[in-house]
C-alpha cells in the first residue's frame, strides 16, 4: 500500500518533553482523514509538522509526490483563525498578493472563494467584526486561494454552533469532491463519524490506531480507542 | 489665574494678527521638530520592525540599549552634540553649531529610541498574531516585513507622533546646540524659557498656548489622515 506521505521515526521534543512520537505512519488514499484524540494528544503538533511549521527532533517526513511537499500547495486552517488587520476581502486575497497577483485580480478571486464557502457578509468590513463561524469560513476561503492539493484543518469547528458546524462540513465535502485531500483534527466524535474516510487515533503523542472510518467506529482494536469511543476520559 | 487669562488673550491676539515674530518662531519649531521626526522615523521605524521579527544573539542587548537611550536626559544629549560640533570638536569643521541643523541632529538622537521602541512593541505584537499565517503561506522575509509595516501603519504613525510630541516640547538640548538666537535658532520652547526668564509671563504663556495648540493640531491632522484612509477601517 503506497501512501501520499509517510513519517518515519518522527519525534518532537519541547522543553525536555516528548510531545509527539516516536511516530511511524503512512497516509493512504485521498478523501478526508480525521485526526482524533483527546486534548494534548499531539494532533496540532502533527498537523504542524506535516505543514512544515514545526521542526522535528528526529525522523523525517517523506512526500511521495514532490508537488505535495511544497508548502504552497498545502492550505492550513488554524484552530483560531489568524485575523489580519484588513477587510474580509483583503484577508482572503492575501495569499495571491504574495504570489504577485494584482490586487484587483486577487480581490476578484477572493470574492469568488468567499461565495464558494458561503460567506455572504459585507466583505469590505474589517474581519474582526465577523462571527466565529464567519471567521472560520474566511480562513477556509483564504486557505483555498492557492487551490491547494492538500488541506489541513486544526479543529475548525471547535468553537462553533451547530449550524456553522453543518455549513463547514458541507463545504469540506465539496472540497473533497473537488479532489483536494483533507487532513483534519477534531475531538468531536460525532463530526469524526460524519466525515471520516480514514482515522488516525493519537494518544499521548503516539499513533495508537489507524484504520478506515467505518472500521474504527464499529470495531476499534485498541483499549485506548475503545475507551475514548465509549466517552471515557483518557489521561 | 489672571495671568493665565492674560496669556490666553495675548495668544489669541498674536495669532489673530499673525505676529511676524510668532510666525517665524513657530515655523522654525515645526521645521526642526518635523525634520527630526522624519529623520528619526526613517531610522527608528525599520529598526523597531527589524528587532521585532529577527532573532539574533545581540537582540536583547540592542533592546536594552534602546530602552536606556530612551531615558537619556536631553540636556546631556545637547551637551554631547555641542562638544562634537564646537569649533574645536571633531565635527567642528562642518560649522553646524548654533544652526537649525544642529538642533535637528540633537532631536534625532533624543527621539529615535522612542520611535524605535514604540514601533518595536507594536510590530512584535503584530508578528505574534501573524507569525503562523505568514510562515504557512511561505511569505518571504521581505514580504513579512512589508506586511507587518503596512498592517501596523497606524501603530507606527503613533510611534512617530510620540517622537514628534517629545521633539516639539523639548527645550534643554536645542537651547544648548541652537543657542536661542533671535531670527536664527529661536523656537517656541526656547522663546518661552527666555520670556519666563525676563518675567514676561503673558508672552511666555501666549507662546505656551500656541505650542499646545500646535501639538493638538498635528495630532488631529494625523488622526484625520489615518481615519480617511480607504480600504479596511482600522
Ligand atoms: N511549544 C511547545 N512547548 C511545550 N509544550 C508544547 C508545545 N506545543 C505543544 N506542547 C504540548 O504538547 C502536547 C501536545 O499538544 P498538541 O499537539 O497541541 O495537542 P492537541 O492538538 O492534540 O490537543 C500538549 O501537552 C501541549 O501542552
Ligand atoms: Mg490542538
Treating each run of at least 4 consecutive H or I residues as one helix, how many helices of chain A?
9
How many beta-strand elements of chain B? 0
Compute the number of strand runs of chain A: 9
Percent helix of chain B, as a range, is: over 70%
Oligomer: heterodimer
Supply Rg of chain B: 20 Å
Class based on secondary structure composition and strand pairing of chain B:
mainly alpha
Mean pLDDT of chain B: 89
Largest sheet of chain B: none
Tell me what the CATH architecture of chain B is: Orthogonal Bundle
* Low-pLDDT sequence parts of chain A: none
Residues in β-strands, percent of chain B: under 5%
Class by helix and strand content of chain A?
A: alpha/beta
Q: So what's the overall shape of chain A? A: globular
N- to C-terminal distance of chain A: 33 Å
The helix content of chain A, as a percent range, equals 25-40%
Q: CATH architecture of the domain at 5-82 and 153-229 in chain A, please? A: 3-Layer(aba) Sandwich
Give, in order, the helices and strands of chain A.
Answer: EEEHEHEHHHEHEHEEHH
Main interface by residue count: A-B, 20 and 18 residues
Radius of gyration of chain A (Å):
18 Å
Description:
Chain B: It is found in: Cell membrane. Chain B: Its main location: membrane. The complex is a heterodimer of chains A (about 240) and B (about 230). By secondary structure, chain A is of the alpha/beta class. Chain A contains 9 helices and 9 strands. Chain A has a 6-stranded mixed β-sheet with strand order 5-6-7-3-8-9, sandwiched between helices. Chain A has a 3-stranded antiparallel β-sheet with strand order 2-1-4. Chain A is globular, with a radius of gyration of 18 Å. The model of chain A has no long low-confidence stretch (mean pLDDT about 95). Chain B has a single domain (about 5-235), classed as MetI-like fold (Orthogonal Bundle). In chain B, about 80% of the residues lie in helices and about 0% in strands. Chain B contains 10 helices and no strands. Chain B has helices spanning about 1-15, 20-55, 60-70, 75-85, 100-135, 140-150, 155-170, 170-180, 190-200, 200-225. In chain B, helix 3 runs antiparallel to helix 5 (about 100-135). At the A-B interface, helix 3 of A face helix 5 and helix 6 of B. Magnesium ion binds near residues 43 and 155 of chain A.
Amino acid at each position: 500500500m503506497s501512501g501520499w506521505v509517510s513519517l518515519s521515526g518522527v519525534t518532537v521534543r519541547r522543553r525536555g518533553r516528548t510531545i509527539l512520537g516516536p511516530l511511524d505512519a503512512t497516509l493512504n488514499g485521498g478523501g478526508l482523514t480525521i485526526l482524533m484524540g483527546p486534548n494534548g494528544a499531539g494532533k496540532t503538533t502533527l498537523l504542524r509538522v506535516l505543514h512544515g511549521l514545526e521542526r522535528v527532533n528526529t525522523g523525517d517526513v517523506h512526500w511521495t509526490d514532490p508537488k505535495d511537499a511544497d508548502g504552497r500547495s498545502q492550505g492550513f486552517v488554524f484552530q483560531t483563525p489568524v485575523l489580519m488587520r484588513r477587510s474580509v476581502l483583503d484577508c482572503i486575497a492575501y495569499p495571491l498578493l504574495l504570489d504577485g497577483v494584482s490586487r484587483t485580480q486577487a480581490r476578484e478571486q477572493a470574492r469568488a472563494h468567499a461565495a464558494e464557502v458561503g460567506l455572504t457578509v459585507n466583505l469590505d468590513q474589517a474581519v474582526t467584526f465577523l462571527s466565529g463561524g464567519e471567521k472560520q469560513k474566511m480562513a477556509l476561503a483564504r486557505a483555498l486561494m492557492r487551490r491547494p492539493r492538500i488541506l489541513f484543518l486544526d479543529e475548525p469547528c471547535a468553537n462553533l454552533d451547530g449550524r456553522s458546524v453543518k455549513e463547514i462540513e458541507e463545504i469540506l465535502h465539496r472540497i473533497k469532491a473537488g479532489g483536494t485531500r483533507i487532513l483534519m483534527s477534531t475531538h468531536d466524535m460525532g463530526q469524526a463519524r460524519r466525515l471520516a474516510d480514514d482515522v488516525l487515533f493519537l494518544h499521548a503523542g503516539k499513533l495508537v490506531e489507524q484504520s478506515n472510518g467505518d472500521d474504527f467506529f464499529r470495531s476499534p482494536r485498541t483499549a485506548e480507542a475503545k475507551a475514548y469511543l465509549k466517552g471515557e476520559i483518557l489521561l | 489665574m489672571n495671568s493665565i487669562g492674560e496669556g490666553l488673550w495675548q495668544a489669541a491676539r498674536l495669532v489673530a494678527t499673525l505676529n511676524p515674530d510668532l510666525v517665524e518662531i513657530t515655523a522654525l519649531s515645526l521645521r526642526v521638530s518635523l525634520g527630526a521626526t522624519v529623520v528619526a522615523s526613517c531610522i527608528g521605524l525599520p529598526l523597531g520592525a527589524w528587532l521585532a521579527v529577527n532573532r539574533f544573539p545581540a537582540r536583547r542587548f540592542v533592546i536594552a540599549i534602546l530602552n536606556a537611550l530612551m531615558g537619556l536626559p536631553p540636556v546631556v544629549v545637547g551637551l554631547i552634540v555641542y562638544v562634537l560640533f564646537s569649533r574645536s570638536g571633531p565635527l567642528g569643521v562642518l560649522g553646524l553649531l548654533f544652526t537649525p541643523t544642529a538642533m535637528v541632529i540633537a532631536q534625532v538622537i533624543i527621539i529615535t529610541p522612542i520611535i524605535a521602541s514604540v514601533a518595536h512593541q507594536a510590530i512584535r505584537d503584530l508578528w505574534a498574531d501573524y507569525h503562523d499565517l505568514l510562515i504557512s503561506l511561505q511569505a518571504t522575509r521581505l514580504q513579512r516585513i512589508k506586511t507587518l509595516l503596512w498592517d501596523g501603519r497606524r501603530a507606527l504613525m503613533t510611534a512617530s507622533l510620540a517622537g514628534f510630541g517629545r521633539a516639539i516640547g523639548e527645550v534643554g538640548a536645542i537651547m544648548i546646540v541652537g543657542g536661542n538666537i533671535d531670527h536664527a535658532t529661536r523656537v517656541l520652547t526656547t522663546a518661552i524659557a527666555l520670556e519666563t526668564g525676563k518675567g514676561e509671563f503673558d508672552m511666555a504663556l501666549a507662546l505656551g498656548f500656541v505650542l499646545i495648540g500646535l501639538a493638538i493640531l498635528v495630532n488631529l491632522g494625523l488622526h484625520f489622515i489615518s481615519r480617511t484612509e480607504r480600504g479596511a477601517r482600522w
